Amino acid sequence: MATSDRSHTRTDLVRYGFGHVDAAEAALDELALLCGIDRDAILSGVVTVGDPDAALTGILRVARRDAAAVAPVLTDHRGAAALWALTGASEGFADFYFRRPAQLADLLGREPTVPDAAELTHELLASVEAVDGFAADGGEASWVALRVRYRTLLARIAAYDLLTPDAPAHVDLVAAALADAAGAALEASLAVARTRLSASMFPRDDVAAVALAIIGMGKTGARELNYVSDVDVIFVGDADDVTTERLGGSRVVDIATRLAVQTMRGISSMEIEPPLWEVDANLRPEGKQGALVRTLESHLSYYDRWASSWEFQALLKARAIAGDPDLGARYIEAVAPKVWSSAARTNFVDSVQRMRERVTEHIPADDVPFQLKLGPGGIRDVEFTVQLLQLVHGLTDATVRERGTLPALAALVDGGYIGRADAAVFVSDYRVLRVLEHRVQLRRLSRTHLMPREEDERRVLARTSGLAGSAAEIWELWERIKRDVRDVHVRLFYRPLLSAVASLGEGERTLSPEQAHDRLTAIGFRDPAGALRHIAALTSGLSRKATIQRHLMPVMLRWFADGVDPDYGLLAFRRVSERLGDTAWFLRVLRDSSGAAERLTRVLSGSRYIGELMEWIPESVAWLDDNALLRPRSGVALQDEARAIQTRHPETEEAMRSVRALRRRELLRTAMGAVLGVLTIDEIAAALSTITDVAIQATLRAVRREVVPPEDDALDFSVIAMGRLGGAELGFGSDADVMYVYRPNGVDPQRAHELALRLVAALRASSEDHRAPLDLDADLRPEGRNGPLARSLDAYTEYYRRWSLSWEAQALLRARGVAGSVKLVTAFFEVADEVRYPRDVDVQGLREIKRIKARVESERLPQGVRPERHLKLGPGGLSDVEWLVQLLQHEHAGRLPALRTTSTLAALSVAVDEGLIPRPAYERLSEAWRLASRLRSANTLLSGQTSDVLPTDRARLEGIARLLEYPPGSATRVEEDWMRASRRARQVFERLFYG
Question: Would you place residue 345 in the very low, low, confident or very high pLDDT band (cuts 50, 70, 90)?
Answer without folding.
Answer: low
